[in-house]
Design brief:
Helix content: 40-55%
Number of strands: 5
Number of helices: 8
Distance between the termini: 56 Å
Shape: globular
Order of helices and strands: HEEEHHHHHHHEE
Radius of gyration: 18 Å
Largest sheet: 3 strands, mixed
Strand order of the largest sheet: 1-3-2
Number of domains: 2
Length: 235
């Protein structure tokens, strides 16, 4: 890498602590990690064909400078994409997927991937990741108590992930019901410490089907597996 410890990272972690965490994370990569600067925004791109990762850094003094937690999170996606499957970097869909359907369930795929990424980061930066899980749990409980819960996909996924993550990390279960309970239990039944295409497909399918209209499966297209969302069959 041209610049192992980039300056643009924003966060409260002391610099030496951040460097130790970054060293521990980077040591797990087998593929080269390259960097490009003066880009419009921060992004980590995994190229499985060339077997490499590229970190795109925004221009100096840009408002797009990423928090340290986001850097860790995106690098976690990249590491899982290298060690498990490309679908762990971001979801890829079969050609012709309806954009409206894809957008409807985007929060499902994001949350499913985050379930595995945060488990990975608990082994690398437990304090940072643990604080993040605690914070999202408190926010979710506050919103549920205030009656802010909406039946939409995004809130249900965020809340289900937050409650399941806190239960796994802290051992405290919150009583849930209905669709939120189904989503929370789907996470808890998926072993996040064993990331694979099989376990990811099983989790995504259960999460999508929780909303009662569609299911999700993987179909091989252009050399690797892509997501296909189809209507649930009715008896």
């Amino acid at each position: 890498m041209g610049k192992t410890h980039p300056d643009p990272l924003v966060g409260l972690e002391p610099l030496d602590g951040r460097e130790r965490i970054m060293d521990a994370l980077l040591s797990r990569f087998s593929w080269p990690v390259e960097e490009e600067f003066m880009r419009d925004s921060f992004e980590v791109v995994t190229d499985p064909a060339r077997k490499k990762h590229v970190i795109l850094w925004p221009r100096e003094n840009s408002r797009e400078a990423p928090p340290f937690t986001r850097y860790l999170h995106e690098m976690g996606h990249a590491l899982l994409a290298e060690t498990a499957h490309q679908q762990f970097s971001r979801p890829f869909f079969v050609r012709g997927t309806d954009p409206a359907i894809r957008n409807t369930y985007s929060a499902v795929f994001d949350a499913a991937l985050d379930w595995y990424v945060q488990e990975l980061l608990m082994g690398i930066a437990p304090q940072i990741q643990g604080d993040d899980i605690d914070g999202r749990f408190r926010q979710t409980i506050r919103m549920l108590r205030e009656g802010a819960a909406l039946p939409g996909v995004e809130f249900t996924m965020d809340a289900g992930l937050a409650l399941a993550s806190f239960e796994r990390l802290r051992g405290l279960a919150v009583k849930t019901q209905g669709r939120l309970h189904t989503v929370k239990e789907a996470f808890l039944h998926a072993a996040p410490d064993k990331p694979s295409l099989f376990t990811l497909q099983s989790l995504v399918r259960r999460l999508v089907e929780a909303f009662g209209a569609h299911t999700a499966s993987l179909k091989r297209e252009k050399g690797f597996e892509h997501w296909r969302i189809t209507p649930l069959k009715r008896d």
